[in-house]
Fold this sequence. Notes:
Layout: E1 2-4, E2 14-18, E3 26-33, H1 43-58, E4 67-74, H2 80-91, H3 96-106, H4 109-121, H5 127-136, E5 137-142, H6 150-160, H7 168-178
Parallel strand pairs: 3-4, 4-5
Antiparallel strand pairs: 1-2, 2-3
Amino acid sequence: EIAWQTDRDGFDDIRLAFVPDSGLLDTIDIQCRHRQAFTGGDSKFQDLVADSVGFVREYEGSVPVTHALAIVVDWASPANRDMRDLCDLARSYPTLEGFQANLDVVRGKLFQRWKHAQKAAKGLCTDEELFRALQVLRIDSVDIEQESSPARIQILEELSSFWTPPDRHRGIALVGAIF
Length: 179
């Protein structure tokens, strides 16, 4: 099921609800942005962080693995790959302490992106809540201008795989609707 302009604060462009092989209903609430800066001083990023934290609070910090938030941006959006990697890293750790220990050792782009996320949160939440928000957040980037770009084709393949068996026609319709 695909819904447009849903009631999810900040992630209200598209809602995908589908039943994968696991048999559990999966839901992804998506926000599409052409250019989105992932910097602490950007008001739109601050809003996305606040809405992600609000989502985590709805579940009292324990969001089911069957519900996620996603931001789809143009591939040229500043720091989108670093933000994607930061969210992926957060999902790879069960605790904030392990996540922060890794960031403290690495001290590179992901550490800086964490600092931007903290700045965007502006005292709105604890680091634990921000960490949980990053765990449920997916960042995807697409070369929106080129229909045959590898990233856009990858998104098509991923969206087509929501159906069992994968349905390329539905995937194409969904990509067309998103972009």
